[in-house]
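Private note to self, pasted from the team thread so I don't lose it. Backbone tokens:
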């Protein structure tokens, strides 16, 4: 997915196959990320997650369109090249904003996971020093 975003930021409006070259890595990355995130989910939770994909894509498209409209208003002499440049510029701005937000959210998630793991380790250590058994080290109940 990162390859597709990098290609989209670097590519200019060249040939008719450019969108295909950009969308194949993006689609592959998005599909792999979706499959990995829904792998351990139950059917109801997975369907709920999938139902949120359409509103998320629609919201992103509305942001892109507003950025493109703003750039089109700022372009004074609207030749075909300037028109295409304004549309591509709005899309590139959205890619940078969305990519930055994704990186920041991933970093925040990793930080919260690390904090939770440290707190769980401290709780287990304190329980072990006090002579109490934790749920993980409790003996299994006997049948009968």
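Design output:
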């Amino acid at each position: 997915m990162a390859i597709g975003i990098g290609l989209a930021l670097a590519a200019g409006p060249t040939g008719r196959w450019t969108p295909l070259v950009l969308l194949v890595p993006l689609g592959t990355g998005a599909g792999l990320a979706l499959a990995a995130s829904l792998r351990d989910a139950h059917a109801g939770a997975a369907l709920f997650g999938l139902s949120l994909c359409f509103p998320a894509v629609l919201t992103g498209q509305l942001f892109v369109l507003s950025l493109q409209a703003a750039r089109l208003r700022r372009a004074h002499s609207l030749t075909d090249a300037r028109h295409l440049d304004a549309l591509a510029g709005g899309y590139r701005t959205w890619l940078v904003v969305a990519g930055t937000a994704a990186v920041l959210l991933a970093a925040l998630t990793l930080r919260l996971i690390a904090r939770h793991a440290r707190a769980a380790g401290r709780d287990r250590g304190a329980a072990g020093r006090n002579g109490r058994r934790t749920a993980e080290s409790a003996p299994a109940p006997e049948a009968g």
